Amino acid sequence: MEIYKQLDVLAGKIEGDLKYDKTTRVIYSTDASAYKEEPIAVIWPKNKSDLKKIILFAGKLNTGITIRAAGTSLAGQVVSSGIIVDISKYMKSIIEINEKEMWARVEPGVVLDELNIALKKYGLFFGPETSTSNRCNIGGMVGNNACGSHSIIYGSTRDHTIELDVILSDGSEAKFGPIDKAEFEKKCELKNREGEIYNGLRKILNNHENQQEIIREYPDKNIPRRNTGYALDLLIENEVFNEKSTSPFNMSKIIAGSEGTLAVITEIKLNLIKLPPPFKALVCAHMKNRNDAFHANLIAIKHKPGAVEMMDDRILKLTENSLSQRNNRFFLEGNPGSIMIVEFARESAEEIEASTTGLIKSLKEAGYGYAYPVVKGKDISKVWELRKAGLGVLANMKGDPKPVSLIEDTAINVENFTAYIEDFEKMLSAYVKDAVYHAHIGTGELHMRPVLNLKDSDDVQLFRTIGLETAKLVKKYKGSLSGEHGDGRLRGEFIPIILGEHVYKLLEEVKKIW
């Protein structure tokens, strides 16, 4: 094929590696989602020069490129019929750590845990974390605006992204960071692709009707996890587009969460924070009924925890037969309908004691739970390992029906969460189906996985139907269809339901501008 002759020419021009043999294409045909599609080739670039050549090559041949890091994406973001560009092999340098100003500059292929190991000697770390922290790359975290269990206090990757060095669609370089109104206007005067982007966004976001539609249609601002569509709601909250604001404009806010569809990231400047207080403890509240955790969560967050996580009875049951998780079940008593794990980090043992006893007292008074073991010291990591294993053990469910990744990323205001779950369960019961629940109830994001048999054509059809019906429910509660895993090809078609047709057309315009 002509494309492979062209690829051979490209291979001779780059410093990195390029392969298109069948084995490589099959290996890269999947990510952590339900999708499978073979790319035409896989490239491992060594540097910015390689990336520029790849972008120009793809543009000349009208071939799509997909930037891939660790492949942990759950919505099909790095599965493509075009060229896969894997930045995890070579582009993984920690370029600079500034201890005094508390920031780090890294390449996109740096693994999160490895970054935090390097930062520990400075008493610093990068706050947002994921259950895949020992393999996920920082570039992927920016692309998906990843959060994690402690997002109650640390927020998302976007909140800690200071500056991005990128390559644009024409192969030119740009640096995006905080700028004031005067600097923004100067950017609009640039006679290049960067200037075209600033000009295009100014035209869209200065329009009063567009601003009103964005404000009206985007998810509730009180939901900390909002990843549906491009973050236009955040781009208008600054001194350039809002006279009442004194915040600078930062293009990084829209690149974060854009899932690699706007620019190719080459360097990332990250905000760092001090290591958590030295004294920690978990309250592992055992609920009699699974859904009691949603009510108990509202009590827990009033006690200012660092994290509130949930595991339901079906996931707990699956860990029984996991050799790697048996020792991590040490704190379980009986057969709870769900476990609510609440973490506290404080400056003294006395503060920890006050926090844990105060929460337990509140839960007992409200009638939620039957056991409240407090876990401290080295045992804390065992509990979190059990919680992190939740995603993996789901694949061990016996039989063809499995919990599927579909609508596991919805985020709803915690005050409305119980009503939302009641509606969701009514919808599922109408199809005689159930779901498995786990993860971040403290921030209104529960990973709900319907149990479906994707070998059955009826359940394959139901896969999309449940996605559509859930999108309508999320809109009803002004929620976000994606809280941390992104839209991808899994949820992308439902964006107009969440944000409305007017805003969706704006998103299309934004994509064209870039």
Concise synopsis of the structure shown:
The chain is α+β, with helices and mostly antiparallel strands. It contains 20 helices and 20 strands. The protein has helices spanning 2-11, 22-27, 48-61, 112-120, 138-144, 151-154, 181-188, 193-205, 208-217, 232-235, 252-255, 292-300, 313-318, 349-366, 379-388, 390-393, 417-430, 457-476, 488-491, 495-513; strands at residues 17-19, 41-44, 65-68, 83-86, 94-98, 103-106, 124-125, 161-167, 173-176, 178-179, 249-250, 264-271, 273-274, 279-287, 307-312, 338-346, 374-375, 402-403, 435-439, 447-452.
Strand fraction: 15-25%
Nearest-integer average pLDDT: 95
Largest sheet report? 7 strands, antiparallel
Share of helix among residues?
25-40%
The rounded distance between the terminal residues' Cα atoms is: 31 Å
Give the overall form. Answer: globular
Number of helical runs?
20
Give the spatial strand order of the biggest sheet: 17-14-16-15-19-20-18
Briefly note the structural class of the backbone: alpha+beta
pLDDT below 50 for ≥5 consecutive residues: which ranges? Answer: none
Number of strands: 20
Q: Taking Cα atoms only, what radius of gyration do you get, to the nearest Å?
A: 23 Å
How does this model look, in words?
It is a single chain. The protein is α+β, with helices and mostly antiparallel strands. It has helices spanning about 1-10, 20-25, 50-60, 110-120, 140-145, 150-155, 180-190, 195-205, 210-215, 230-235, 250-255, 290-300, 315-320, 350-365, 380-390, 390-395, 415-430, 455-475, 490, 495-514; strands at about 15-20, 40-45, 65-70, 85, 95-100, 105, 125, 160-165, 175, 180, 250, 265-270, 275, 280-285, 305-310, 340-345, 375, 400-405, 435-440, 445-450. The strands form 5 sheets. The chain has a 7-stranded antiparallel β-sheet. Strand 5 (about 95-100) and strand 6 (about 105) form a beta hairpin. The longest helix is centred in the last third of the chain and has 20 residues, at about 455-475.
